[in-house]
Amino acid sequence: MKNMRKMSVSNKAVIIGGGAAGLFCAGLAAQRGLDVTVLDKNAKPARKLLITGKGRCNVTNNCTPEDFLQNVRTNPRFLYSAIHAFAPADTMRFFEERGVPLKTERGSRVFPVSDKAVEIVDTLTAFAKQSGVKIVPKTRAAAVSCENGAVTGVVCEDRQKFDAAAVVIATGGASYPLTGSNGDGYRLAAQLGHSVIPSRPSLVPVVTAEPWCAEMMGLSLKNVTLTLKNANNKVVYQELGEMLFTHFGISGPLVLSASSYMTEPPQTYRMSIDMKPALEPDQLDARILRDFEEQKNKDFANSLDALLPRKMIPVVVRLSGIPADTKVNSVTREQRRKLVSLIKALPLTPIRFRPIEEAIITSGGVSVKEISPKTMESKLINGLFFAGEVIDVDAFTGGFNLQIAFATAFLAAQSLCPEQ
Description:
Blueprint: H1 2-9, E1 12-16, H2 20-31, E2 35-39, E3 60-61, H3 65-70, E4 72-74, H4 80-85, H5 88-97, E5 102-105, E6 109-112, H6 117-130, E7 134-136, E8 141-147, E9 150-156, E10 161-163, E11 166-169, H7 184-191, E12 196-202, E13 206-208, H8 212-215, E14 220-229, E15 235-245, E16 249-251, H9 253-259, E17 270-274, H10 281-294, H11 313-320, H12 333-344, E18 346-348, E19 350-353, E20 361-366, E21 384-386, E22 394-395, H13 400-414
Parallel strand pairs: 1-2, 1-11, 2-7, 11-21
Antiparallel strand pairs: 3-6, 4-22, 5-6, 8-9, 9-10, 12-20, 13-16, 13-19, 14-15, 14-17, 15-16, 17-18
Helix pairs in contact: 2-6, 2-13, 10-12, 11-12
């Protein structure tokens, strides 16, 4: 009887989660001859992909496997086999061969030329369906069933049962729960005896103490340098790029990346923005002097239009301590020096992260010590595999995390071959 049961399900695989990793793994596994079912709690798959990259979907990073691993924050060695098996170039080839032209932007970020994430979603969904995958929507896995140390299928909350000799948990992390990524995979893995590293937000906006951030809400800064220092005044992150002021503090690519370096409580760090990174302090002072010379009779508050974004000027004027109605020809050298220091290092005081639900990626997940790095199979349960963010791996912003999803899904699919 045992052999009969095994034979009846040996060609069946269930993928829990219809995101990037789940759909990709399912399509590849189906092409290899498996009878694949994807269980997704949403009405439509890949909802989280629709909001990535501000709706544009930063699908990967156009870099070498070696450069990729340099950008993985947590457990990069675990991903060595995966990224060499399916590199960023392979991801780009996959989409371009299916009619999605791609472009590479600053920081080697790769986007669809259309700037529409839905194109990536539609391509992955079509790939899975055309490969013969059955997608079951609005279905939440309650447990993975096992027998004699091997998976036998999945039991759902609505009491549906799906027999399978292989199960892939590809549920994502705990960020953006409304898209279905709410930590279900951690629960399922823990039920099976897996260790789960507690999740914390990574790539997350930062709440700051400064009330003036709200005054600049909506202001996007480009080509500025954000510096993050720890309690010992050591620089732990410094990068040129883009950021955004919000009603609670700061967000945007630079801030999200900086947050992943904040391994201690946020309030122990200090941040600063260099508004003019291309200019040394003396050069900036000379630039300000020239501007003042051209506007001798103007009030100080009205003299910074050529130097700073309009929304930022009232804030900088206040922080400089120079009275707003001071004529620029009366501004002293010492006052000017303070203005230069302010523009070169606008101070910010982190006090906490935004909720984990707003994090683009969560750090933490199923311990890599219990997963084979060459197959993505559980070391504890035969036939159980993991792919994507549910694993305790995460990287910087820039397409690296989606590449992790594709690479780990690729290895899992390669390992789901039906028994001969």
